[in-house]
Amino acid sequence: MKNRTIKTAFFGIAIASACVIGQGCNSFTKTQKGAAIGAGAGGAVGAFIGKSAGNTALGAIIGGALGGTAGALIGHKMDKQAAEIQQTVPGATVSREGEGIVVKFDSGILFDVNQTALKGAAQTNLDKLATSLQNNPQTNIMIIGHTDNTGSDAYNQDLSVRRAEAVKAFLTSDRVSGSRLSTTGKGESEPIADNTTADGRAQNRRVEIVIVANDQMKSEAKQQGQ
């Protein structure tokens, strides 16, 4: 029965995901796409699917998705915050995914090579991000550190954790509640580009900041969606 449930959920999210990326659904808004993904799988199974595909950020978003009308309402709020971050935070790549937001900084923007101290320009960028996070308090934030494959697995894992923690420490000092923030380091385990090239390694050295609805936003969305 458990295997059947997982297969059913996986099939559901596969259909939803195909619709999201397929040409036949190009007219869908980000909010509608978020609702489709949320409807495709339950929380725990969604997180499993996302992480098993090698994408912790996507797994966190899918894992907490509500889907349906409530998910669409959350997606609408995320649309607005994503646009705000895009307009106000230089150096950030902003992506709306399902019912959440992924904000990506190349590590070269934030840190010198093999360092965990934030650059001056990085602090300016993160200060602007902190303002958006303060303006939208009904969210939780996951900070994910990544490296390329240069060096040992153990070193890269430790570096990715320390960099994520450095970003968290700065945001906390900039009046973002620490209770909203969590960190994880993935080392070299989730590349997004080819590690055999200099450009690919530069893309893989990054920090991702995932923004999702907290319990209060979810509760309000459920009530509004009834």
Automatic annotation (TrEMBL):
<dbReference type="GO" id="GO:0009279">
    <property type="term" value="C:cell outer membrane"/>
</dbReference>
<keyword id="KW-0998">Cell outer membrane</keyword>
<feature type="region of interest" description="Disordered">
    <location>
        <begin position="177"/>
        <end position="201"/>
    </location>
</feature>
<dbReference type="Pfam" id="PF00691">
    <property type="entry name" value="OmpA"/>
</dbReference>
<keyword id="KW-0472">Membrane</keyword>
<dbReference type="Pfam" id="PF13488">
    <property type="entry name" value="Gly-zipper_Omp"/>
</dbReference>
<dbReference type="InterPro" id="IPR036737">
    <property type="entry name" value="OmpA-like_sf"/>
</dbReference>
<protein>
    <submittedName>
        <fullName>OmpA family protein</fullName>
    </submittedName>
</protein>
<dbReference type="InterPro" id="IPR006664">
    <property type="entry name" value="OMP_bac"/>
</dbReference>
<dbReference type="InterPro" id="IPR050330">
    <property type="entry name" value="Bact_OuterMem_StrucFunc"/>
</dbReference>
<feature type="compositionally biased region" description="Polar residues">
    <location>
        <begin position="177"/>
        <end position="186"/>
    </location>
</feature>
<dbReference type="InterPro" id="IPR039567">
    <property type="entry name" value="Gly-zipper"/>
</dbReference>
<dbReference type="InterPro" id="IPR006665">
    <property type="entry name" value="OmpA-like"/>
</dbReference>
